[in-house]
Amino acid sequence: MLNKKDNKVFIISIFLVLSIVLWCLLAPNTFNIMANNALDFLVGEFGWVYLISMTLFLMFSIILAFSKYGNIRLGDNNSKPEYSYISWFSMLFSAGMGIGLVFWGVAEPLNHYVDPMGIEGGSELAKSFAIKKSFMHWGLHPWAVYSILGLSLAYIQFRKKYPCLISNIFIPFFGKDVSNKGIGKSIDILAIFATIGGAATSLGLGTLQINSGLNYLFNIPESSLVQTIIILIVTILFIISAVGGVDKGIKILSNLNVLMAMVLLLLSIMIGPSFDILHTFFIGLKDYSIDLVLELNPFEKPDWYKSWTIFYWAWWISWAPFVGTFIARISKGRTIREFIIGVLLAPSIVSFLWFSTFGTMAINLGINTANSAILKTSTAFFIIMNNYPLGTLISIVAIILLCTFFVTSADSATFVLGMMSSNGNLNPSNKTKITWGILQSLLALSLLLSGGLNMLQTISIVAAFPFIFVILSSILCLVKFLIQENI
């Protein structure tokens, strides 16, 4: 399955993941205390690093897109994109957001509406606050992180012809054999750990919401047995998709995802307060634009920023190795400008419309409904939809969409893990993909059954902290590569 060159990264990664899972299962309280202490320390002492870094990532992405290097192709000068705009967008969107939008589309705006920062809950100001902060957390910033790492990886593999390993981004610093050095292997192992941690957490969240939706609509019990069956079914589906490869499996499912998401969105706009939704969208864009420049002041309300914005920034950075690697894999032939603008704008606009729609539908029902809906995040969507015509139909479509997003996120992660543990092979073997597919599902299931899902989320964010500096350094490496283009 793996040659000797790959075995060290693969074996150490497996050992690290299983050791942490074993610790979590045997001593969950100790693990929980240590993981949360580490997270509190990082967010409390280095929150400013997250905030400044995320701003730099966004600024660099925009500057590079409109620089003289924007016309450089990710490949040979005459290379063409492998995928249409629709398929490309569908795959990057499904990998980068997917389950999260369905899970938080109602719950996050409601949380901000009920308990806004320094504003009376349930007020008109709270409505504006809820939307603009949802835009902030799900808009340009996460995609700027993905675009930088994804662009660096696409550049080195398609333009410079090096294997798609995050360690190879650092060739300008450490030489062409960096992936065989200790520092290179450490970077690749950390990337694998962050990827499988984020993927397993996503699987767990998806399982919880699917089970909650089935319980709310059809009285199917919320139990370990049902959750095990859900994970088993989804695992079979996403392994089949991953084995089918990008063209046959992941692309088809991603296109289906976006089609279903658009159906769900349009149906919701039609049966919901349409005028209010559109008004919220445009006002939200205005408030968000102002917030980007003027209002981000974590020193005014540090606890709120630690709980929300800084936590989100840490979470998006922990997802950067997975999403960045996958976006790079599907972006051969695009120009740097096309890549950055596409990755930044297209999914952000959909996210803005998503939160405007479901946030407005939820908030318009008033503070009492909001308070009851956010008692349990996994059922918030279904509780709100139950108050609208065709609400049951929308909820059923949402559950199906959760399943397809679930499968696409998992098969994308499986594919990326196969690449990372196969020396950057763009088409890893089926045995490698199946191994990682089974492992991430077992990881999600064991943590779900032991109540340790939040612990994995915490530790993956903690482990991904060094990736702030990896991504910052990748900017310098990419600039050094681009200077050599002699444009």
Automatic annotation (TrEMBL):
Membrane topology of this protein: Multi-pass membrane protein
Keyword NAD (UniProt): no
Source organism superkingdom: Bacteria
Keywords: Cell membrane, Membrane, Transmembrane, Transmembrane helix, Transport
Coiled-coil regions listed: none
InterPro entries (alphabetical): BCCT_CS (IPR018093), BCCT_transptr (IPR000060)
Ranges annotated as spanning the membrane: 9-28, 48-66, 86-107, 135-156, 189-210, 225-246, 258-285, 305-327, 339-367, 387-413, 434-453, 459-483
Localization (cell): Cell membrane
NCBIfam families assigned: bcct
Family membership: Belongs to the BCCT transporter (TC 2.A.15) family.
Protein name: BCCT family transporter
Organism encoding this protein: Tepidibacter hydrothermalis
